[in-house]
TrEMBL record:
Motif ('HIGH' region): 15-25
Transmembrane helix found in the keyword field: no
InterPro entries: aa-tRNA-synth_I_CS, Anticodon_Met, Met-tRNA-synth_bsu_C, Met-tRNA_ligase_1, Met-tRNA_synth, Methionyl/Leucyl_tRNA_Synth, MetRS_core, MetRS_Zn
GO biological process: methionyl-tRNA aminoacylation
Cofactor binding note of this UniProt entry: Binds 1 zinc ion per subunit.
Cofactor(s) named in the record: Zn(2+)
Reactions performed catalytically: tRNA(Met) + L-methionine + ATP = L-methionyl-tRNA(Met) + AMP + diphosphate
Keyword check for Disulfide bond: no
Motif 'KMSKS' region, chain ranges: 336-340
Name this polypeptide is given: Methionine--tRNA ligase
UniProt xrefs under CDD domains: Anticodon_Ia_Met, MetRS_core, tRNA_bind_EcMetRS_like
Keyword tags: Aminoacyl-tRNA synthetase, ATP-binding, Cytoplasm, Ligase, Metal-binding, Nucleotide-binding, Protein biosynthesis, RNA-binding, tRNA-binding, Zinc
Length: 695
């Protein structure tokens, strides 16, 4: 593809605006899409890389209801946060739009109307799930129940997230309203259906037979399985008030199904961009020669491989995707990422803890990308990728080259003498890298591509370590000129080839090597061009002045990683507390029963662990009445010296009893916090949850 420039429309799944985005989103969709788009631009292609916020659908209305605000408030808030995260991480969209924008409402309405006028829908009155208590129809996320395909008990009315199958709400076994928890009734309503079954044969030809070899096997396999099960008509309108109004007769009070309007958002975003740039948007969606690529996560395969293509085909004026390189899921420290359980690394929080380390996260996520199976992000791996690869290999090589060039030649690239065999070999290897990395990127194998980039840095590191210019400089200055020249060519190639993966570091390195200047010294063509590395004699010509060394990467210390692990541990504890079963209430106590108990505030004045026991502590308490001894089972949770002077609640008139020969005259009231630690009764203490018993 690198021979002649081509037109590409690259889409990245529209993020849903009911929360911020986390590393799973970045790893699954946006970083791979960005690597691909940046690479294609560097090859001189015409690229429209578009995305936008998905702002319709039921979860947003549910969230708005819960928070007592409008759906618009919710989408405005998260659209802002998400935009900022993308910008911070260098996701190079040509345009980022939102589906509440007018251009999108117009585009989606037009799209629906065209299909309607061409008779592409089935209009039908059917019985749909209805919540009598809430007085509304239950579509999509308003209803949960058991998935008829895999048995997942928390499937939604439009999709089971466990097996990925797309569902009609009435397919659910034991449906339950997400609003009131009621069992829904059935009520008649009129809707427009997309007859997917009529496209079954066409999909079979186009995807199952036509893309058996060029689509990823996880994507191809899923599509094949759904087609084997047989497709059915799906309603593309809903009885809701948040969304794009159904623009045809009889559509009052109804909106387009969110998954009908959302993918049209790619088209609207392209229009918005073209308008701003003074371009024509149509070739990007209607010219047969344009290559349309959808980057998504595996939960969106059904929408991008079946529903949206059927819409495009039925409409008739649009091209179809050439590929849908969907990724599997990323887990965090062995557990599924979850927004509701706060089991995530949020991008805006990451930047607070690791400012200016966007490239490190991009690198670690790509190195571990869930390209063929679910994969795991761990903080230890993140640290190792940074310290052992970015710092120790890439950063170390660049630093040596730039520092030595400044030291020996005041930063001016030396003119080489005759190449040795090792030099020839090294230059030949260097020139092979652009094609190797390109080939992996073009196959959507970004992990492999990035690993090759690091291999090029390894080549540079090894070359310097073997040639040892810092020793040679004392004996053979002429040879050192050649060695440094070769090393500078590798540094220059790294500056260019790292751009899709590590855009911030690449920019810093290009500046360090003074690329803009190099450009004018060469032929005037754009300097940072992929293929020129293989064809040009010199990447940084002799006589070119480079800048001073700056650190590209810095070490991440253990304590920074421990802080992140502690954060996750706290989340785990909070989740465990939320899930914990509360002991049932005891038998009713009469008021008389209560007044029998003499509860006093006491101060601990002495304490020591009882010898030869694990749990028992002998405590002397000043109860105001007297100073008495109480034996308490807290020795595993407190150190004696730490409880002196503490005020506690004492049951003073508990019948005395002997414990290991010591008379205990009363009881200090304790409770257990969420971590299972016994604590003195103080309901405000961290980790003490409602329902904890006191004894
Ligand atoms: Zn399922």
């Amino acid at each position: 593809m690198s021979n002649s420039p081509e037109r590409y429309t690259i889409t990245a799944a529209l993020p849903y605006t009911n929360g911020p985005i986390h590393i799973g989103h970045l790893a699954g969709v946006y970083v791979p899409a960005d690597i691909y788009a940046r690479y294609l631009r560097m090859q001189g292609n015409d690229v429209a890389f578009v995305c936008g916020s998905d702002e319709h659908g039921v979860p947003i209305t549910i969230k708005a209801k819960k928070e007592g605000v409008t759906p618009q408030d919710i989408v405005d808030k998260y659209d802002g946060i998400i935009r900022e995260s993308f910008k911070e991480f260098g996701i190079s969209f040509n345009n980022y739009s939102r589906t509440s924008a007018k251009v999108h409402h117009d585009t989606a309405s037009e799209f629906f109307k065209t299909m309607y006028e061409n008779g592409k829908f089935i209009e039908e009155t059917t019985k749909q799930l209805y919540d009598d208590k809430a007085g509304q129809f239950l579509a999509d996320r308003f209803v949960t129940g058991t998935c008829p395909k895999c048995g997942n008990e928390e499937a939604y009315g439009d999709q089971c997230e466990s097996c990925g199958t797309s569902l009609n709400a009435t397919d659910l076994i034991n449906p339950k309203s997400a609003i009131t928890g009621e069992v829904p009734s059935l009520k008649e309503t009129r809707h427009w259906f997309l007859p997917l079954d009529q496209y079954q044969e066409w999909l079979d030809e186009w995807i199952v037979k036509g893309h058996a070899h060029d689509w990823k096997s996880n994507v191809h396999g899923q599509v094949k399985s759904w087609l084997n099960d047989g497709l059915r008509a799906r309603a593309v309108t809903r009885d809701l008030d948040w969304g794009i109004p159904v623009p045809v007769e009889g559509g009052d009070g109804k909106v387009l199904y969110v998954w009908f309007d959302a993918p049209i958002g790619y088209i609207s975003s392209t229009k918005e961009w073209a308008e701003r740039e003074g371009k024509d948007w149509k070739p990007y969606w209607k010219d047969e020669n344009t290559r349309l690529i959808h980057f998504i996560g595996k939960d969106n395969i059904v929408f991008h491989c079946i529903i949206f293509p059927v819409m495009l085909k039925a409409h008739g004026e649009f091209i179809l995707p050439e590929n849908v390189p969907a990724n599997e899921f990323l887990n965090l420290e062995g557990k599924k990422l979850s927004t509701s359980k706060n089991w995530a690394v949020w991008l805006h929080e990451y930047l607070e803890d690791f400012p200016h380390k966007q490239d490190v996260l991009r690198y670690a996520l790509t190195a571990n990308a869930p390209e063929t199976k679910d994969n795991d992000f761990t903080w230890k791996d993140f640290q190792a990728r940074n310290n052992n690869e970015l710092v120790a290999i890439f950063g170390n090589f660049i630093n040596r080259v730039v520092v030595l060039t400044n030291k020996y030649y005041s930063g001016i690239v030396p003119k080489p003498n005759e190449y040795s065999e090792v030099d020839e070999q090294t230059i030949a290897e260097l020139k092979a890298y652009p094609a190797v990395i390109a080939s992996s990127i073009e196959k959507y194998r970004f992990r492999e591509a990035q690993a090759e980039l690091m291999n090029l840095a390894r080549l540079g590191n090894k070359y310097l370590a073997d040639e040892e210019p810092w020793k040679l400089i004392k004996t053979d200055e002429e040879r050192v000129k050649t060695v440094m020249y070769v090393a500078l060519q590798i540094a220059s190639a790294l500056a260019t080839l790292s751009e899709p993966f590590l855009p911030f570091s690449s920019a810093k390195l290009q500046k360090m090597l003074n690329f803009t200047d190099a450009e004018s010294k060469l032929s005037g063509e754009e300097y940072s061009q992929w293929d020129k590395i293989a064809t040009r004699d010199s990447l940084l010509p002799g006589g070119h002045q480079i800048g001073k060394a700056e650190l590209l990467f810095s070490k991440i210390e253990d304590k920074e990683i421990e802080k992140q692990l502690d954060k996750l541990e706290a989340t785990k504890t909070a989740n465990a507390a939320a899930d914990k079963e509360v002991e049932p209430q005891k038998e009713t106590a009469s008021f008389e029963d209560f007044t029998k108990m003499d509860l006093r505030v006491g101060t601990i004045i002495e304490a020591h662990k009882m010898p030869k026991t694990k749990k028992l502590m002998v405590i002397k308490v000043d109860t105001g009445l007297d100073k008495r001894t109480v034996v308490s089972g807290i020795a595993e949770h407190y150190k004696a010296e730490n409880i002196l002077g503490k005020k506690v609640t004492v049951l003073a008139n508990l019948a005395p009893r002997k414990l290991r020969g010591v008379a205990s005259e009363g009881m200090i009231l304790m409770t257990e916090n969420a971590q299972g630690k016994l604590v003195f009764v103080n309901p405000d203490e961290d980790g003490v949850e409602p329902g904890a018993t006191i004894n």
